[in-house]
Design a protein that fits this description.
Keywords: Hydrolase. The protein is α/β, with parallel strands linked by helices. The protein is 46% helix and 14% strand. A six-stranded parallel beta sheet has the order 3-2-1-4-5-6, with helices on both faces. Helix 3 (49-56) packs across helix 4.
């Protein structure tokens, strides 16, 4: 079986929080609701859009959540069209980490709450889209932590749960890994803290991208490190 390193996108590969917060604030304003603070918005990054908005507006109905999701997508697309988006850089060390994993035989993939269009845009912008053997998005799957994205990625990559590592910054990513029977490795530079990631099932939490290849080797080889 192939070894698959399946990355989350926002908060794991790229730092996109500023644009996510701006688009969310815009869709709340259109709905004539007071936008949540940015800390609350960052907490729901990683979920599919309707599910994320439902968490932020628990008293709203499905129709409101869906309408706000469409307004969010429009706001995001408008920022991109007008060239007013903040920079969405790769986190430090990510490019070298992808190379190191490829050089040691890992297949790479992405499992994200973004849309197909949004994911393809950001990966193409950074020139890394071709490096991923499988791309799974919210357009074709239930929201994390449902295991569908991981299960489809494994099928496409010819990997098994025991040879698959889900790498992400939120408890949703780690719970998704557990639900699929895969390993979870958290990252400390995203939106949920290390203790929360461990509590959701992460075997370890990397504090820098360049530490990931070593952690993946330890995880795949069957060790169970406890230190964060």
């Amino acid at each position: 079986m192939n070894r698959l390193a399946l990355f989350d996108c926002d908060g794991t590969l790229v730092d996109s929080q500023a644009n996510i917060c701006r688009a969310m604030e815009e869709c709340f304003s259109i709905a004539r609701l007071v936008p949540p603070d940015r800390a609350a918005i960052r907490r729901i990054v990683g979920l599919s859009l309707v599910d994320a908005i439902a968490r932020l507006v628990p008293d709203g109905d499905t129709a409101l959540h869906q309408a706000m999701a469409e307004d969010y997508k429009h706001a995001f697309f408008t920022m991109r069209q007008r060239g007013t988006m903040d920079e969405e850089p790769l986190f430090e060390g990510i490019a070298d980490t992808l190379t190191a994993l490829e050089d040691t035989g890992w297949l790479l993939g992405v499992a994200t709450g973004k849309s197909d269009r949004g994911l393809h845009h950001i990966l193409e912008h950074h020139g890394i889209k071709q490096r991923f053997a499988t791309l799974q998005t919210a357009d074709r799957h239930p929201s994390k932590p449902h295991p569908a994205m991981v299960e489809t990625a494994m099928a496409e990559a010819g990997a098994a749960p025991e040879t698959t590592v889900v790498i992400g910054d939120t408890s949703f990513d780690m719970a998704m890994a557990v639900a699929a029977g895969a390993h979870g490795v958290g990252v400390a530079w995203g939106y949920h803290g290390p203790e929360e990631l461990i509590g959701a099932g992460a075997r370890i939490v990397a504090d820098h991208a360049l530490h990931l290849p070593g952690h993946l080797h330890e995880t795949w080889s069957g060790s169970s490190p406890a230190a964060v």
